Amino acid sequence: MILEPSVDNLLTKINSKYALVIISAKRARDLQDSGGGAMVESPKSTKNVGVALEEIMDEKLTIDEEVL
């Protein structure tokens, strides 16, 4: 269960639930394969997906709207 950041807040950054899932899953896989290297300072989450969502919320991770 995701508590922070909330889905409603995340949807203000990326306006599609589908795109939100895809970009966070790809970033989580990238974090797993590279062994760390979060783009946010002191992430609250210990899980890679949570870190990816925090990066989206902090606008460190974005999506090119032309791709959608």
From TrEMBL:
Catalyzed reaction equations: RNA(n) + a ribonucleoside 5'-triphosphate = RNA(n+1) + diphosphate
Subunit structure of this chain's protein: The RNAP catalytic core consists of 2 alpha, 1 beta, 1 beta' and 1 omega subunit. When a sigma factor is associated with the core the holoenzyme is formed, which can initiate transcription.
Gene, per the UniProt record: rpoZ
Family, per entry: Belongs to the RNA polymerase subunit omega family.
Taxon lineage: Bacteria, Bacillati, Bacillota, Bacilli, Bacillales
Name this protein carries in UniProt: DNA-directed RNA polymerase subunit omega
Any single GO BP term: DNA-templated transcription
Single GO MF annotation: DNA-directed RNA polymerase activity
Free-text function comment from the UniProt entry: Promotes RNA polymerase assembly. Latches the N- and C-terminal regions of the beta' subunit thereby facilitating its interaction with the beta and alpha subunits.
Organism listed in the record: Tenuibacillus multivorans
